């Protein structure tokens, strides 16, 4: 499989190169040159497969030429062996139409473990035997950081610099990052910054010839293709359990950077019968405005109890626009440059009509979120986190008759215990495996949110590429 950039001019890469690179050198994002597809018979043959065996089926075409099936299976067994549920991503039924797909049974209690546990092993595999030293620079609204840090702590050849907006992540999220004391892990709290500010700084480092020429920079944010690839798996796993390919299934996805929902889009492109993909945003609703009115214009970020969705620039949306717009790199580069200059753009007619068939969006405010939490609790005995509640609220409003709707449960409720307690009166307990989090020592740097301050800090600690 070969990978091309959404902006058309970066070199074509193989799976190994695309995994280690993250962002493309022309400012775009990498995508497979073509979508592999499965026939209904091939999808039917996934019935009864374990999560790991499903993962091998779904991901094999994407790693072709770099990893064989046996290698891929061994990596998946190791990655998903660290999940605390035997089904890895179990389905839970709420009523006759609604289901939760629990994606939070990994080490850091959010769905990002599904991708990052595998990505950590891929990094180690691709770097071993070389003396290459990679510098991972990432921005996090909370969950990516903890999942990446867990996956990369202590791994040879990798230093991790993780930027988070100071005071805007939950205590559990922060401690899951800052109590990892491995010497290759560096947490940076940016003062007065939002997640978008952190993300913009990371982008600027990649786009700085001086900085990216000095260090072998690598990205573990959801712009990294390998992460999206790992997330395609659970759409297949869940839909097949609910009757695919004969019965179409809808998914409701709490969305921030459009990574998780883009993985669902890819699953549909690969032949999975997805009746609808519901793009659920909180009041930071740039994606809802883009999909319902064609208006992709950046507002200012409003902090909410679902911080992992408090995003106004949605990196992976570029991948959707590229695919829907006929994969024209030059046209997309011009469109994105227009957005970067004016912080606003219109979707083309082709992009809007292309999205309309499969995608539906909704914006969920605080009241609707709290109501969905109470409905799950009182109606089905399920305590859910604020992000999941946004997905569930959108699912319940979607008016899809006779179609099972799977809401992606993206975080364990204990990760956001204050918000859950406010809505439901119940305070969810941390699972025993992370129970001593509040007794552990924390270590992190607080820096002003400027390019100069952050790059100086990293340059003092990272290993330059040879
Ligand atoms: C990251 C995250 C999201 C948003 O996922 P995207 O891939 O950025 O759209 C939603 N919920 C939780 C709990 C998350 O950690």
Automatic annotation (TrEMBL):
Keywords: Amino-acid biosynthesis, Lyase, Pyridoxal phosphate, Threonine biosynthesis. GO terms for molecular function: threonine synthase activity. The keyword Membrane does not apply. Its cofactor is pyridoxal 5'-phosphate. Residues 86-343 form the Tryptophan synthase beta chain-like PALP domain. Its EC number is 4.2.3.1. Residues 2-80 form the Threonine synthase N-terminal domain. It is an enzyme of class 4 (lyase). Pathway: Amino-acid biosynthesis; L-threonine biosynthesis; L-threonine from L-aspartate: step 5/5. It comes from the Bacteria. The keyword Amino-acid biosynthesis applies. It catalyses: O-phospho-L-homoserine + H2O = L-threonine + phosphate. It holds the Pfam family PALP. Belongs to the threonine synthase family. NCBIfam families: thrC (TIGR00260). This is Threonine synthase. It comes from Sphingomonas hylomeconis. The gene is thrC.
